[in-house]
Fold this sequence. Notes:
- By secondary structure, the protein is of the alpha+beta class.
- 34% of the residues lie in helices and 21% in strands.
- It folds into two domains: 1-67, no CATH class; 90-167, YaeB-like fold, CATH 3.30.2310.
- The strands form two sheets. It has a five-stranded mixed β-sheet with strand order 3-7-6-5-4.
- The relative contact order is 0.12.
- It binds zinc ion.
Amino acid sequence: MYCRYREIxxxxxxxxxxxxxxxxxxxxxxxxYLMKDAKFKAxxxxxxxxxxxxxxxxxxxKCNNLKNQMxxxxxAWKLQYxxxxxxxxxxxxxxxxxxxxxxxxxxxxxxxEKVLQCVLRGNFYKINDTxxxxxxxxxxVFTRKGCxxxxxxxxxxxxxxxxxxxx
Length: 167
Ligand SMILES: [Zn+2]
């Protein structure tokens, strides 16, 4: 058993060897929460369920943890993007050292911490070769060539009942 992400992941415990049973985890290529969403399944014409054969593979616990709630393809894009611009997510410390911020951005220590979390744990959206967006817990981080240019707090969606009352 080999980790699915061994060739691209900076944290893989099984880079050059097979995984022990303790190290291996069941990997959902498209995460379970998305597979529960009927609209998502219909949109991508998926006919299988979350734990069916086409959607499962093996990965090590470290890669699985780093991938978090992402699907395998955007996870691979994220790793590629970070690698391309010399950003290391091997550890939080290496990320702190390697992530650069636009000097015009005046962030507090707490805000910087949130940005680091967002890049480390967040979903990844590739805009083009140089630009990307990371999203995590209502924080969105926009980067160009790996440099943080903009940080925005996304508003929580109003519950439908409340929205009706207001609108
Ligand atoms: Zn791995």
